[in-house]
Amino acid sequence: MDVTTLDQAGELLRRTAASVVMPRFARLQPGESEMKAPGEPVTIADREAEVMIASGLLDLLPGSRVVGEEACAANPSLLDGIGEGTVWLVDPIDGTANFVAGRAPFAMMIALLKEGETVASWIFDPLDDRMFVAQRGGGAWKDGERILAAAAPPVLTDLRGIVSTAFCPADGLAFVERARGAVAEVLPTARCAGHEYPLVAMGYRDFILYWRTLAWDHAPGALLLTEAGGSATYLDGTPYSPASSRTGLLLTHHAAITLLLLDPKQIVAR
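^ that's the sequence the OP posted. Answer follows.
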């Protein structure tokens, strides 16, 4: 993908944030938000932003198709075949519960897939005006500055990370408890992958463990993370794929951290 297209997709997120999202932040009116599923809010800003972003992306790449979170909520079959052809994934507001509550964090995300592989991604934080961009083989960037993983080898007992237990199965909870006893600190999720992936990519957190793996939540951040030198794998160590429906995803700042956390000889309660 050329630099112009990368910049245009990022600017599309900025324009959408300015015209649709931020004018409604902490100003939602009665009837402008609802529950699309238990614990899953959606707002007029989510829906209008997705329409605006989708239209702009189709103009950028004629012949592509858009798979957005809110469109899929109405028609889940849109996810069929995301491993084929040129597909844009759109999460118009990631962290909608925070947006509804009038608090940070929330983000806006896009990923571009070609034959099921993420080749470019964008994460925009409209509150802090921060843009993260990644390109397959082209690196990870924050506001034009390269992001690179630290070279220092990790120590298990020094690790600090984030764990989301939402949608976690019983055997997963056992893994979480073993990890919790082995590392320095486990923090709860802020319910915004678009905020948490950059934290790991930049080394402010060492790892994240998520269970639900909806493609629009994870494809953008997984590319940012791996292009920065980190790792995105399932709990058996195989690489993350946005076209897979598998659950249980471990994101780390460095591949050596993944090896530590997935080694049963290492993860024992202290």
